[in-house]
Amino acid sequence: MALTQVLTGGIKADAVDNTILKLDDNFAFTGTNSFSGGLSSSVGQSFIPEFISNLYLASNTSDACELTSCFTNTHQVYRLIGQVGCSHGNEGNTRFTFLSGTDTELTSGYYGANRALDDAQTGVNSVEADGSAVTININQSSTGTSIVDMHFYRQQHAYQLLGMAGYHDQSGDRGVQYFGFKNNSALELTGFRLENNHGNNMSAVNFSVYGYRFRQNATTEMLGAYQ
Amino acid sequence: MAYSINKDTKVATYNGDTYPPTQKTNAQTGETTLIAKSEAECIKIKKLKDNAPNEMLNALRSKRNSLLAQTDWMGTTDVTMSAEWKTYRQELRDITKTFNSISDKDFKFPTKPKE
Q: Which of A61, A142, A193 faces B20 most closely, judged by CB atoms?
């Protein structure tokens, strides 16, 4: 359909009853809408992620980085996705811990398992029972970053982190890793920290956090106000 | 135990070793700041560094063990293991005599014999 250009001069005083287009103001119409019903917000009605923030760490500048104040009551489920470097000096793992309150690191209470397998058929299984951190990528070579994709379910007393990572180890083997961890902390978690397990500077980190407004029924709703 | 912080660079020094600041980004404001490591954090990182050789050796052992496990069935009483497979498995067991990490120069797992 062809577009019709409406000249400003023609609509400036285009009064229909008490409706007028006022170009001098920040709104277009005055008066009353005559249609029935109204527009309803779609926020929270669908499982669409909302971008929250990015965490970027330039390669070989620090052994640790933190993203604070990214977990709030607005969102109940989070997707954390991006490139995560490990040790810039040699092959290593990345430790993930939560932050609470005034960015205090939560260094206990991590329970879960890690399972990895690469194309050389070498595999690593590991578990943590009341561990000090979650290992979100393993055996990542010093020269690259791995892709990590995980979901965080922000339910107080039953926080859960489920994710996967692709990695490329120092001897050239490539693999995939799955992990699932739970922490029953009573603290309100507000952010997270990534650090190298060898205490070395990390390769580059470029990580994004998205939030979902997740609604369940009244008796099983997750922590946080639904909006 | 000497601990100090360079106020300009935020680099901490503990017992002669330097520790870069932690990069902290606030998701609400987008502001990124460098936070100097506390003495306790320096001690923690020192432990991670000291334990790194053990971690890397354990990672090598885990991978080696998974390769050994794949051929354990050849050691059952109703199977005769060929000399090639015996050599391969022995080389796997001995690999930690030569290498401490798969990051070591020229590291390579032994080649599997043809089945």
A: A61
